[in-house]
């Protein structure tokens, strides 16, 4: 006799709650339908449900996300890097204290002290007929960031080696919640063929009908709630074996929204905005933002970054400020609205020669007009690069392109052989935007502070200077 097991999952929502009333409504309906028929059903989330760009996640420090998962009856949840490295040590330690689901992540633990009670390496779920489903969780090993926040993160392969046999002995079916990325999932399938299904995430890939690799079913549901995942398993009770496994995705745009879940979000948003409505300053004049210009507010933020990190030079992109500020009261909610990115300050050491190359790249349209998605940036375009501690002289060519003519430090041409401390957003320490920065071997990250925390000081200091 064949026993059908139904699994539904979300991954990499990143607090895009506009889709949540559809996703959660569908999941809740499906659970009710399956349970009414006596069928087995489980619901998982594969991490990065939280993203502090949204007021709910910022104001409630992720607790609102947990409430939503509780309300929709999730069974097992993995930790993504947005849960792991955008909250303070204390906030993460208590994030899931009130969770009604199990949290599995085998490769993180506090550096000091005991694990929080909610943190497990794996969980064994059981159907009413006794079929045991082992669920292991793994997250992306951003070791430097975790250590700065008081957590240790182990290589995923090491923890799979540690737990796979243990889970195998207790399970009929093994599922890996992998917040590691598509290519790592394929390698996991090759190295651990005892895993039956890998639910993937982190790289935001979408596998509409799954993908078989080395006998392991790989699944993934994209990002930002555009899809949710479905997995259908057939268990042969007589042979005690899994005889079929299928994976699909459902586009949220085809689903109906549920008013009850919309009301949950409205209540959470109201609570979060109340918490964020602390007064920062009172502006006598508005402060403008210009993605392709150097405004006083943007210049102030770049200068504050330089001073706060104790650097010789600082660089930020004007696109980091989505809007300006109106005259009158400014609250933390306003600063979160105009600078929502989970971006941290970063300091590197560059030679004068490397800084000249960074500046030259920064003035190209390829950089300023680039529509960046990811790496912590939640805006539209990178925008103009603004510098503090440097004077840049440019010339404009007939085609309208600006070209760097001179780069001055303390009024003198920068010394190409000297080393300088250089502060910027951590976004530019990743990827290929500025190889000189991303390849630096002397990166210092500042956590849990974000750029908007520095923006508080900037706005307050601008009020003081304008009134003196």
Concise account of the structure shown:
The chain is an alpha/beta fold and 468 residues long.
Question: How would you describe what is shown here?
Answer:
The chain is of the alpha/beta class and 468 residues long. It has two domains: 271 residues, Purple Acid Phosphatase, chain A, domain 2 (4-Layer Sandwich), CATH 3.60.21; 190 residues, Alpha-Beta Complex (5'-nucleotidase,  domain 2), CATH 3.90.780.10. The strands form six sheets. The chain has a seven-stranded mixed β-sheet, covered by helices on one side. The protein has a six-stranded mixed β-sheet with strand order 7-8-10-11-13-12. It has a five-stranded mixed β-sheet with strand order 20-17-24-19-25. β12 and β13 form a beta hairpin.
The assigned CATH architecture of the largest domain is 4-Layer Sandwich
Please report the total strand number as a whole number: 25
Low-confidence stretches: none
Give the end-to-end Cα distance, rounded to a whole number of Å: 83 Å
Write out key terms for the chains shown.
468 residues, alpha/beta, 31% helix, 5'-nucleotidase,  domain 2, elongated, 29% strand, 6-stranded mixed beta sheet, 2 domains, Purple Acid Phosphatase, chain A, domain 2
How does the SSE layout of this entry go?
Blueprint: E1 2-10, H1 20-36, E2 40-45, H2 55-59, H3 63-71, E3 76-77, H4 81-84, H5 89-93, E4 102-104, E5 108-110, E6 119-120, E7 122-126, E8 132-139, H6 143-148, E9 151-153, H7 156-170, E10 173-179, H8 182-191, E11 197-200, E12 206-213, E13 216-221, E14 227-236, E15 241-251, H9 259-276, E16 279-283, H10 296-309, E17 313-317, E18 328-331, H11 332-338, E19 345-351, H12 352-362, H13 365-368, E20 385-388, E21 391-396, E22 402-409, E23 412-413, E24 419-425, H14 435-438, E25 444-445, H15 451-467
Parallel strand pairs: 1-2, 2-3, 3-4, 4-6, 8-10, 10-11, 11-13, 17-24
Antiparallel strand pairs: 1-14, 5-9, 7-8, 12-13, 14-15, 16-18, 17-20, 19-24, 19-25, 21-22, 22-23
């Amino acid at each position: 006799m064949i026993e059908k097991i139904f699994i539904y999952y979300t991954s990499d929502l990143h607090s895009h709650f506009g889709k949540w009333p559809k996703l959660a409504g569908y999941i809740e309906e499906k659970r009710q339908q399956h349970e009414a028929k006596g069928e087995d059903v489980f619901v998982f989330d594969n991490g990065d449900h939280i993203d502090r760009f949204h007021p709910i996640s910022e104001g409630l420090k992720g607790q609102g996300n947990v409430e939503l998962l509780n309300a929709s009856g999730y069974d097992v949840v993995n930790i993504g890097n947005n849960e792991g490295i955008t909250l303070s040590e204390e906030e993460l330690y208590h994030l899931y204290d009130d969770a009604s689901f199990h949290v599995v992540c085998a490769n993180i633990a506090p550096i000091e002290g005991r694990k929080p009670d909610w943190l497990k390496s794996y969980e064994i779920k059981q159907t009413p007929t006794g079929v045991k489903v082992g669920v292991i969780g793994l997250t992306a090993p951003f070791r430097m960031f975790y250590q700065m926040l008081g957590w240790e993160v182990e290589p995923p392969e090491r923890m799979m080696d540690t737990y796979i046999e243990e889970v195998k002995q207790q399970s009929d079916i093994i599922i890996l919640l992998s917040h590691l990325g598509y290519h790592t999932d394929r390698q996991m399938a090759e190295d651990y063929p005892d895993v039956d299904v890998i639910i993937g995430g982190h790289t935001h890939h979408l596998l509409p009908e799954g993908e078989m690799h080395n006998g392991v079913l790989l699944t993934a549901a994209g990002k930002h709630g555009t899809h949710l995942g479905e997995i259908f398993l057939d268990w042969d009770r007589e042979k005690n074996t899994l005889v079929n496994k299928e994976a699909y995705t459902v586009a949220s745009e085809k689903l109906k929204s549920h008013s009850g879940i919309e009301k949950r979000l409205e209540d959470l948003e109201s609570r979060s905005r109340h918490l964020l409505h602390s007064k920062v300053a009172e502006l006598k004049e508005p402060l403008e933002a210009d993605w392709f210009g150097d405004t006083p507010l943007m210049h102030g933020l770049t200068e504050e970054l330089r001073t706060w990190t104790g650097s010789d030079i600082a660089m930020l992109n004007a696109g980091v400020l989505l809007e300006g500020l109106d005259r009158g009261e400014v609250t933390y909610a306003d600063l979160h609205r105009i600078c929502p990115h989970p971006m941290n300050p970063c300091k590197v050491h560059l030679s004068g020669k490397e800084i000249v190359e960074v500046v030259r790249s920064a003035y190209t349209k390829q950089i300023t007009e680039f529509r960046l998605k990811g790496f912590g940036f939640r805006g539209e375009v990178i925008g103009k690069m603004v510098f503090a501690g440097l004077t840049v002289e440019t010339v404009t060519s007939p085609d309208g392109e600006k070209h760097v003519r001179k780069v001055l430090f303390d009024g003198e041409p920068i010394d190409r052989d000297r080393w300088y401390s250089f502060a910027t957003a951590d976004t530019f320490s990743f990827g290929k935007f500025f190889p000189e920065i991303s390849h630096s071997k002397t990166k210092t990250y500042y956590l849990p502070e974000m750029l908007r925390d520095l923006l508080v000081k900037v706005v307050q200091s601008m009020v003081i200077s304008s009134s003196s």
